[in-house]
Structures are given as structure tokens and as C-alpha cells.
Design goal:
Rossmann fold; alpha/beta; 8 helices; 254 residues
Length: 254
């Protein structure tokens, strides 16, 4: 990955799954990686393990992306510490399922708070510094569930947030294009992370259906999504902004 050496990249939800794999790819490319997550134990462990594995410069910062004050405070802290943020992967997310008529107010609102509002708070806080500096790159994690209706899941809130953040990437990508800040979305297909492992255990028939609907005939690996996100954050994607890139084994082909 070109152009990432010495650059600070923040990853939200970086303690596990896709975010952690992206932290590894970026650290191997020479980036200074800030893993943030609400799960302090897993985030701390991830940083220690990735430092040992890559020899890279990584730090962990606890963060609830649904708290806009905390997001702004982290942006200020990193700036004050000499970690000027060049890249952001707004990746933290939850994937609850519920029949639409059974959604509690709390579950609906929490999904929107983390998956949509949290992405915007991060884009706003970290994007502000990038726009001021005239350089930066942002990737938000959408999903195939944001580009079409995937079945048999019932996850109206999740799908709605993933559609919203895909469009948000296009909106911000266009708005900040003249400021030197690129904004794109990656839309993973079914990817072998803890979210899916839990669903595989709870509902094997659903899991088998996902695989059968994926032309590659398997789940994506977290590192396949990580490579896609790292590419979009790197200078190799210098001509790409306001785009949604599927990394889904062909699931979303029309
Ligand atoms: N795994 C898949 O198949 C798949 C497919 C499409 C999209 N995605 C998206 O990829 C992203 C990463 O998911 P994953 O599959 O790696 O799952 P994961 O559960 O391993 O990672 C999600 C991370 O987000 C963190 N998180 C949750 N709430 C948070 C909050 N309020 N503030 C900060 N961090 C918080 C979790 O602690 C966790 O570490 C999510 O946005 C998910 O919707 C995943």
C-alpha cells in the first residue's frame, strides 16, 4: 500500500474482526494505527498482539462512537499528542436482528446511534482536521445489506443504517473532494467475524443459505475486507472518491 508510511489512521471498532484485520494490514504498510473500540480489554489485547506481530506503531483509545463529545475529545487528544489523523476507517457497528414489528424503541435507536450517528460523528471530527490540512482519506464500513435486501435476515435497522452510510460516503466524498479529502465506503459481504460466527451457531440453516447465495461459495475473510479498506485509504486509490466498493464474493452482482 503506497503513501501510508508514517500516516496516522484511526479505526473504530478495531478490537476485532474486520477492524482488527485492517489495523494489521495498515501497520504492516507502515501506518501509525489508532485502534479505538468500546471493548477496552479486546482493544488493548489487539494492540499488544499487533505490535508484536508487525513491529508497527499502534495505540489503543477507548471510544464509544455513539458519544459525539467523546469522539471530538479523541480527535483533540490525538492532535495534541502529535498524532495528526490522516486516515479514518469508520467501522464500528452492531448487527442485531428483529422482526420489524417487534423492534423495541431502544434497539432501533441504539442501532442508529452506533451504525449511522457514530459514523457521522467520526467523519465530522476527524474529517474537520483533514479538511483543514487539505489531505486525508476516509472509509466507512457499509454492507451488502445496505445496497440491497439480503435474506432471510430481518434487520431493518441494520440495513437502513448501512444504506445510509454508503450514501453518506458519497455525499461527503463530493462535498470534500475540493479539500483533498477522499471518502469512500467498503461494502463487505458475509465475512467470517464474531458477528457471523454467533449467527452460524444460532442458526446454521441461515448460514448455509448465505454461502449458497455467494458466487464464490464461501465467506470473505476479514483480511480480504481489510485489503480493500487499506487500498481505499492508500494513495493507490488517489483517483477514487465518493464510491461504494463491494467486497462480497459476487453476492451483490446484478
Ligand atoms: N462480518 C460481516 O459479515 C460483515 C458484513 C458486512 C458489514 N460488516 C460490518 O463490518 C463492521 C465490523 O464488523 P465485524 O464483522 O468486524 O464485527 P465485530 O463485532 O468483530 O466488530 C465490531 C466492533 O465494533 C465494536 N463496537 C460496537 N459498538 C461500538 C461502539 N458503540 N463504539 C465503538 N465500538 C463499538 C465492537 O466492540 C467490535 O469490536 C461493522 O460495521 C459491520 O456491520 C460486517
Amino acid at each position: 500500500m503506497q503513501g501510508l508510511t508514517g500516516k496516522v489512521v484511526v479505526i473504530t471498532g478495531g478490537a476485532g474482526g474486520i477492524g482488527r484485520a485492517t489495523a494489521e494490514v495498515l501497520a504492516e504498510a507502515g501506518a501509525r494505527v489508532v485502534i479505538t473500540d468500546i471493548d477496552v480489554a479486546a482493544g488493548t489485547q489487539a494492540v499488544e498482539a499487533l505490535r508484536a506481530a508487525t513491529g508497527g506503531e499502534l495505540r489503543f483509545e477507548p471510544l464509544d462512537v455513539a458519544d459525539p463529545t467523546a469522539v471530538t475529545a479523541l480527535s483533540d487528544t490525538l492532535e495534541a499528542d502529535g498524532w495528526p489523523v490522516h486516515g479514518l476507517m469508520a467501522n464500528a457497528g452492531i448487527a442485531p436482528t428483529s422482526p420489524a414489528l417487534d423492534y423495541s424503541d431502544e434497539l432501533w435507536s441504539r442501532t442508529i446511534d452506533i451504525n449511522l450517528n457514530g459514523v457521522f460523528w467520526c467523519c465530522r471530527a476527524f474529517g474537520r482536521r483533514m479538511v483543514e490540512r487539505g489531505a486525508g482519506a476516509i472509509v466507512v464500513t457499509s454492507s451488502i445489506a445496505g445496497l440491497g435486501v439480503v435474506s432471510p435476515e430481518t434487520h431493518a435497522a441494520y440495513g437502513a443504517t448501512k444504506a445510509a452510510v454508503a450514501h453518506l460516503a458519497e455525499l461527503l466524498g463530493v462535498e470534500w473532494a475540493s479539500s483533498g479529502v477522499r471518502v469512500n465506503a467498503v461494502a463487505p459481504g458475509y465475512t467470517a467475524t464474531p458477528i457471523l460466527e454467533r449467527i452460524q451457531a444460532e442458526s446454521p440453516d441461515t448460514f448455509d443459505e448465505w454461502v449458497s447465495r455467494t458466487p464464490l461459495g464461501r465467506l470473505n475473510t476479514p483480511h480480504e475486507i481489510a485489503n480493500t479498506a487499506a487500498f481505499l485509504l492508500s494513495d493507490q486509490a488517489s483517483g477514487i472518491t465518493a464510491t461504494v466498493l463491494r467486497a462480497d464474493g459476487g453476492y451483490g452482482a446484478r
